[in-house]
Structures are given as C-alpha cells and as structure tokens.
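Hey, I'm writing a tutorial for new members on how sequence and structure tokens pair up, and I'd like a real worked example in the thread rather than a made-up one. If someone can provide the structure for the chain below, I'll link this post from the tutorial.
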Amino acid sequence: MSVKIRLQRHGKKGKPFFHIVVADSRARRDGRFIEKLGTYNPITNPATIDLNVDSAVKWLNNGAQPTDTARAILSYKGALYKKHLQGGVAKGAFDEAEAEKRFNAWLEAKDAKVQGKVEGLSKAQADAKKAALEAEIKVNEARVAAAAQAEADAKAAEEAANAPAEEVVAEETTEGEAPAAETEENTEA
C-alpha cells in the first residue's frame, strides 16, 4: 500500500480551503483518508497553515510520500527540517536536545520573517489607504473651488445683466432731476 501526504479540497467555488491528510494513493482526492494532519487556507495573505508537525514527521519516517504542494507546505512549516534533524540524531552527529534547539531557532527565525511580511502588508495597505484619502481630499477641494468659481461667475453674470438696467434707470432719473435742480436754483435767485 502506497501512502501519500496530500491535500483534500474543501470550500466553495473560487474560495478553496484544503485539509492536509495522509491517504492511500488509490483513494479519491476528496475521499477516504487515514489521518488529518492539518489545514491550508491559500486565500489569506500570507496563507494560513495549521499543521501537526510531529505527526507529519512520524508519517514521513514511516515512508509516506508527500505530493509536490504538500512537500512545499511541509517544508514551509519545518516538518522536513525536523525529519532531517532526527536523521542527524540517529547518526549520532548531535543529541536530541541540540536538534530541538536548532529546530526552535529555525521556527523563531521563520516566525519573524512571516511577521515581517504581515507588517509590511499592513503598512502597504495603510499607505494605500492614506494615499487614497489624500487624493479624495484633493478632488473634493477641487470640486469646492470649481463650485465657488462657478457661483462667482454666475453672480458676476447676474450683476452684469442687472447693472446696465440700473444704469439706464439712474441716467433717466439724473436727466429728469437736472432740470428740476436748475429750476430750484432759479427760484432762489
């Protein structure tokens, strides 16, 4: 019986979610499995992987062959590295405590790298949001300025339309008043 570590697809259309399982190679992709090792969600950024590393190493030592994608996931989570370190312990290169120390140091470095990526993504998202807000403020200021300019132009056009009519009325009254003013001067003299 050939045993594989592979992915079982779950989730909706367009939103995949995978279970990492140990299964007989003759079983269907989403069919019967021997043991569930964890989950993999590629939709999140960075991808969310929950894996039982010790169980995965046990199956790798028993001869289970990972598929290409499962091998990448096992490598990412350190299962292949832990298997490699156990090989060094078996050969007598170092003891179990040294292997555990090396694995924990590798895990801390990997977690720091992943955390750096998460922070970088959140910073980039915040910068993009800030740039969009500044662009929106600039557009709104341009709209307000254009509306104020249009209002000023409309007011000026209205004043220009009303001004000649007022000037004509003022000229007519000035012409009519001038003789009256002369007559008043004449009557006083």
